[in-house]
Design a protein that fits this description.
alpha+beta
Length: about 290
Amino acid sequence: MPFALLKDRALISVSGPDAEHFLQNILTTDLDTLGAGAAKPGALLSPQGKILFDFLISRSGENAFRLDCRADIADDFLRRLMLYKLRAKAEIARQDQVLVTVAWGDDSSASQSDSTVLADARFREVAVSRSYGGASVGGDPAAWQALRIANGIAESGSDYQLGDAFPHDVLLDETGGVGFKKGCYVGQEVVSRMQHRGTARRRVLIVSADRALPAPGTELTVAGRPVGTLGSTAGTAGLAIARIDRVKAALDAGQPVLAGDVTVSLAIPAWAQFSFPREAIGAEDA
C-alpha cells in the first residue's frame, strides 16, 4: 500500500464542553455531518470570505477535535482561534510531536476501531486515509503529490496563497468543506451569495502537457491575457486555479492556453459537479 509521511503538517487540538459549538460558529465545515471515522476539509475565512487558514478537521473524542494544518501556519492559526474563543469553555493547543501519514489504494480504508486512522473525505475516486502517530520514515511524497494532482485536490501554499482565494476557487464547496445548511460563520454571507448566484468563476482545473510544466506560480495565458495560475506540478501534470469563463472562450475560439511557453490542456476533475459556462460570464474579476 503506497504511503507518504507529511513532514510539513501540524495538529491543533480543540476540546472542552463548548468546543463543537465554538468551532461550528467560525469554520466553514458543518460539524453536524462530521462522523468519527472521517477527516473533512474546511477553512477559517476573513469577513470578506477569503481563506485565511485551510485544514482537515476530525473528531478525537467526546467534545474534542483535531485540526490538521500546515506546520508553518499553525501558530498563526492557533492565535486566531484564541482570538475568537472569548469565553467559550474550550482548550486550544498545538501538538507538534504527532506524525501525519497518508496512504491510498484498496487497503487504505480507515479502521473504525482506530480513531487515529481516518478517511480523507476530499477524495472521491480513490480511497485515501490519514493517520496520526504512524511511520516515522519512508513513503513517497512525490507519489502523494501526483495523486493530489490527478484528483484535483488543491492545498494552500502549493496551489494558492492564503488570503487570496474563496472557498469555491479551491472546490471546498464540492469536497464537503463548506456547510451550506448550517448557521452563520465568519465570511458566510459572501460564500452563500456566490453559491446561490452561481458566480464562482475561478476553479481548480487539472493541467496536462506534452512536456514538463514550468514552476508553480507561472501564469496561464491566452493570447497574452492571463486566465489563471499554475500550482502543484508533477512532470507533465499539474493543478491550476483558472477563470473558467476565459478558458471556455479560448476553447471555443481554438486558442491555445500557455503556461509560460508550454501549451497545456485544462480539464475539470472527473468527480466535480461544476462545468464550463455556456457563455462568457463577464470580463471583471469576482
